[in-house]
Amino acid sequence: MEEQIKSFLIKKNFSFLPKHFDVKLIGNGAYNTNFLIDGEKRFVFRVNTHTDQVAGKGLDNEHTILTSLPKGIAPKSFYVDVSKMEFPFPFRIEEFKEGSCPTHFSKKLLGTLAKTLALLHQKKFRLSGTFPGNTEGFRFENFMRPFLEQLKGKDKNIDKIIEKAKLFVKYYDKQNPLTSFSLIHFDIHLHNMLYDQKNLTLVDWEYAEIGDSAIDIATVFWYSPMFDYSPIFSEKERVFFLERYIEASENPEIVSRLKIAEPIIVLIQTLWLKAQLDNIDQIPSHIRTEDRIQRYRKGFEIGLNFLRKHDFSF
Questions:
Q1: Predicted confidence (pLDDT) per residue in 46-100, tens digit
Q2: Residues 127 and 248 in one domain
Q3: Angstrom distance (rounded) from CA 13 to CA 10
Q4: For 62, how many CA atoms within 13 A lie in the half-sphere containing its CB?
Q5: CA distance 188 to 251
Q6: What is the pLDDT of residues 255-293, one digit of tens each?
Q7: Is 102 inside a domain boundary?
């Protein structure tokens, strides 16, 4: 595909691209493949080759979000087209950011991430939901419904947890006392970070929403242990991260909000992992590795153990 992309870009003659460049494959995700546009200035050509139309539209959502973020949090997005009229697949062009995915949460990384999220959450919105906001608002109950329908009756342990969690989630949705919301990444884990020991960049924004900032903190604490073989955060690490976040955000209420957000996030990811493990053949073949399947199994057990101990009290 490298030559196809290069020919297309030369023909389009984008003013922001260098005159001379090469195109190289740099990474494959579940839905998007990233190519480096390597020239005097470097960019990333992010292309969606998945047949799911909704997944393709995620690039459009990403572009809208990235153009609104504070400088330095994420790559700058220059161009997007999801119509497949210009190129056979939906694509987006963004700046190339230096750094690599960290392998663990060092103290320095935790401090930097806390300050980065405080900056992200600084801007407030009156409406929650799909960016840039809508009157319907974001509801966890709606988000969970496809997983509930897919998994109902397949596992007695899961069924018991789901029944308790449904009441808990309904309570959260209806009794949410927040009157303003923040833009949240909603998918924070080690593989969605680029870090060079100084600068931190968050990538993969297709799941971003306007919602409760506590959700992002919950994903920090649980997504990497459930996906990346990362150890579960110690109490000392949690306290350090929250202290740095509160210091930067002046939002001490995050601690009480986190007590609601954490079990919801763990439940959603446990249900998602269960759905993946029950339908392994539907995982895109290029990422359907034994290592990934083992990570899913480990993450599912971590989530299930947490949920078994949680009483979902109000």
A1: 998 865 544 555 788 889 899 989 888 999 999 999 999 999 999 999 999 999 9
A2: yes
A3: 5
A4: 31
A5: 20
A6: 988 988 898 899 889 988 988 998 899 888 888 999 999
A7: no
Helices (H), 136-234: 140-151, 156-175, 213-227
Question: How much is the CA Rg of the chain, to the nearest whole Å?
Answer: 20
**Sign of torsion over alpha carbons 225, 228, 231, 234:** negative
Residue 276 shares a structural domain with residue 238:
yes
Q: Look up the pTM and report it.
A: 0.90
> Around Cβ 238, how many Cβ atoms within 10 Å?
16
CB 121 within 8 A of CB 213: yes
- Rounded to whole angstroms, how far apart are CA atoms 2 and 8? 10
**One domain for residues 115 and 86:** no
- Please give the residue range of the domain that contains residue 280: 107-309
Total residues belonging to the chain: 314
CATH assignment at residue 259:
3.90.1200.10
23 burial type by CB count under 10 A (0-12 exposed, 13-18 middle, 19+ buried): buried
